[in-house]
Amino acid sequence: MSLLVVGLSHRSAPVSVLERAALTAEQQSKLLQDTLATEPAAEASVLATCNRIELYADVDKFHAGVAELSTLLAQHSGVGLEELTPYLYVHYEDRAVHHLFSVACGLDSMVVGEGQILGQIKDALALGQELHTAGRLLNDLFQQALRVGKRAHSETGIDRAGQSLVTFGLEQLADGEPVDGWVTGKRALIIGAGSMSSLAATTLARAGAAELVIANRTLERAERLAASLAGRGAGDAAAVAGAASAGAATTARAVPMAAVPAELPHADIVVSCTGATGLVLTAEALAEAFAAGAADRTGPVALLDLAMPRDIDAAAHRLDGLRLVDIESLAEASADAPMAADVDQVRGIVSAEVAAFGAAQRAAHITPTVVALRTMAADVVANEIARLNGRLPDLDDKQRAEITQTVRRVVDKLLHAPTVRVKQLAATPGGAGYADALRELFDLDPQAVAAVSRADRHDMNRGQA
């Protein structure tokens, strides 16, 4: 089996296509289940963020796998295959590993070096584990990607080179002014309570926002987020770690989605990131909401749309008194964020980690064959000892135990060097053929080897349950 990724991102497709191809949580689950039901795929995981949709699979045929994964992405995204195909990219084997590790380090992000992607990779892994579509290969791959991403952030200055989309977006709203400067004392409305909205709310609280209002379709989730920000029940005022230097506490409260029109006129900042398939805020609704208080405002209302597809009508930027930044404008503004030296250092880490991961996977590939060989040897020993017992019935228990132990030691010593060496050779490029050679030389039953692999997958899936 071989690793294959088929996907599209802000680097390969225009925002208009990414918007239409965006997958809801339910669609992601169905995509994984349908992928696993196809003939070429044995495992599957999907990485879906605001600026990328990638389907990872362990396939037995490259061309069939590419065709099947591309078709599935088209079917579940609702974008026709002919329209989608020009924007798709394909990575295979080590290139697929290199791609995910680069993504995890923020090298492929809209804002290079941002750390939000690590949480999204973790979510993708959790979904694959929950649905049991991620087997040993994809579990190993995604877990290692998380470790590589954390290593890049801890060992290099990539954090200085890039920022989270939230921070970058907020700075764009103020023409590059640091968030801590212009957010202080502002009232913010956060629409949505997912991971990106939570990050936005936390960022605003730490920057000294006076009030945060969290609106969500599921009020309970909004209440949990508000409570975590305020440190008490939703609606109570409490200090937030790292809040404004003036020492003012940030208040946080939750409201249902239906209350958004009433909350809008009081907001200085609006951040929206929901999973809605249509607009959450139309230009007409925004014009009506902010018309009444326009005379009392000293600056424009800041609108940050981090959703894909977009939550806020793009026509809002033409309204007086409003300033809109969305995914499309962020893509245009983020080209020069990273520092070359930090990026080069991270690329070196990625290359080294890809080589190490490939060696480990190649070594692991031969393990079922080695286990099957040792199992066969143990069976041979057991049969010969049983035959000896029948031919020498007068041996006492001590003698039988000594003979049994001696035979086992001889077999172990004979197998030790070749099995250790074959694992070492299998870890080298092109080493996959050593497993085939071992099976041929010792006439191992292919079904016995397959049974070991199935048992390993069963144990892993049981551990996930």
Beta content: 5-15%
Say how many strands there are.
11
Q: What is the residue-averaged pLDDT?
A: 85
Q: In the CATH hierarchy, what is the class of the largest domain?
A: Alpha Beta
The SSE order reads EHHEEHHEHHHHHHEHEHEEHEHEEHHHHH
Q: What is the CATH homology-level superfamily of the largest domain?
A: Glutamyl-tRNA reductase, N-terminal domain
Strands of the widest sheet, in order across it, are 7-8-6-5-9-10-11
Distance between the termini: 24 Å
Number of helices: 19
Described by strand count, sense and barrel closure, the largest sheet is: 7 strands, mixed
CATH architecture of the largest domain: 2-Layer Sandwich
In terms of per-residue confidence, which ranges show pLDDT below 50 for 5 or more consecutive residues? 231-247
Tell me, briefly, the overall form: elongated
Give the helix proportion (percent range): 55-70%
